[in-house]
Amino acid sequence: MRITRRTLLVSAGAGVLGVLLASCTPEPAPSPTPDPSSTTPAPEPTAPSSLEPSAFVRSAWSEDPFSLGAASFTPVGVQQSARTALAAPVIDRLFFAGEATDEQAPGTMSAAVRSGISAAEALLAASANGDRVAIVGAGLAGAAATARLASSGLELTVFEARDRVGGRVQSHVDDDEWPVSAQLGGWLVDDALDAVIDWPASLDLRTAVLSGALWRSTEGDDVEPVSAKPLTEAITTAQSRVTDESLTEALTEGGADPDDAALQALLAYLSTMSGADADQASSWFPPVLPPIERTAVLGDLAALFEELLDGAKVSVSSPVSRIAYDDDGVSLGVATGESLSFDRVLVTVPLGVLKTDGIEFSPALPFAHRGAIADLGMGLIETVWLRFDEPVIETDASLWHVVGGDATIRTWLNLAPATGENILVGLVGGAPAGEFAKLDDDAAKTAALASLTPFLGSTQSPAA
Ligand SMILES: Cc1cc2nc3c(=O)[nH]c(=O)nc-3n(C[C@H](O)[C@H](O)[C@H](O)COP(=O)(O)OP(=O)(O)OC[C@H]3O[C@@H](n4cnc5c(N)ncnc54)[C@H](O)[C@@H]3O)c2cc1C
Fold first, then answer.
1. What is the mean pLDDT of residues 413-439?
2. Which of 270, 281, 308, 459 is the most buried (most CB within 10 A)?
3. Looking at ligand 1, which residue's alpha carbon is closest to its atom 53?
């Protein structure tokens, strides 16, 4: 696998979900899972006085007008085929790509790349040499499409709304504050991504393998690793029913209590991957449980985009506000006031932008496209990066979970075992991510630090 050849360190220790998915009985069992009925509503969070990060940075994708969310998901009752409907070209003038158009692994970086390549190939097949082609959006889908179309005899222009390329992949680079790039969007890579991308030699290919899990009660006790078995069994049963139901409904019908603190912690983790809450997500097309080990990119991913976009004219700070099309061509209205003509356009903007009429189409898109845009869900995920001078606790576990209580952030990635740097990455998904995104930086930092309270004050080994 190309990107892992310079992997920093493979940490030892079993990843908890893999163990659980294999239906093993977890051990040891230090103390019982807390009873959710014993938890009391928490007042405004206060940060522990012993914790003061030396660096802090966070995302706010839910509020960002050029994403309006983090990742598409399939809501209960919606067919995955809505994604193919969204990807369908319109009279060979408009083409669509982006993670939301991919049925295989929506909401991921591999989906974005795969969709970009596939749409580029469809566009190429419909084009003549010298055609003027606009690509709207310079995220992974737009960049992968551009790379596929470069040297194809087309005249390519990329319009990007933000003042940077990369979209929902964003490496925050600050050598004074961050020894590794703080990744505010996609950064956990897998074989599926490796299969569709050629990592450029110019990319800082440092990666870290994150493994080993720690499950803590709000009282600071280790609790049993939470079993995914009730969830996987509920999904399996729900998939044989005649109508789709939400994960929450599937769990309830399977005899599990979705309000159980342990299950809530697992569902919170799941929503940091999909952006959906359990009562929104389909059990016919459920979010995928993360693998036991995650590979994280530590370097600056901007180099990837520079390489992929080479060969096209890239116009940043150029939000497209209108796309008018007919049998003869396409006219793009850019928020700067310009109106430009092209033979074909590839639209890669996020589903969140399409859902809020961020671009006016004239004529309106076909019903199948509009139906898909309305039906698919845009999930919310936010991340917060904290660097400390000292370790918060000594542990080999890279994945921390808070069980019980009402911590804003229940899922943490600890980069210390793999990198030696005291960096904790908080992940929050679903409705709590929307609330977190609305906080100002001070309140977000306080909420993040308060969420770490269960991990203070002891030395632990990863749970098996
Ligand atoms: C916090 C977070 C963590 C994630 N973690 C992972 C992970 O670890 N692994 C993984 O595989 N995936 C992850 N993802 C998902 C992954 O990042 C996305 O699926 C992928 O980057 C989407 O690429 P895209 O090209 O489809 O969309 P985008 O990257 O959103 O690109 C679309 C582009 O269109 C631009 N645009 C929007 N409106 C306009 C307009 N009107 N005119 C012109 N341009 C416009 C946007 O600015 C953007 O650059 C994560 C996402 C988030 C938010």
1. 97
2. 281
3. 70
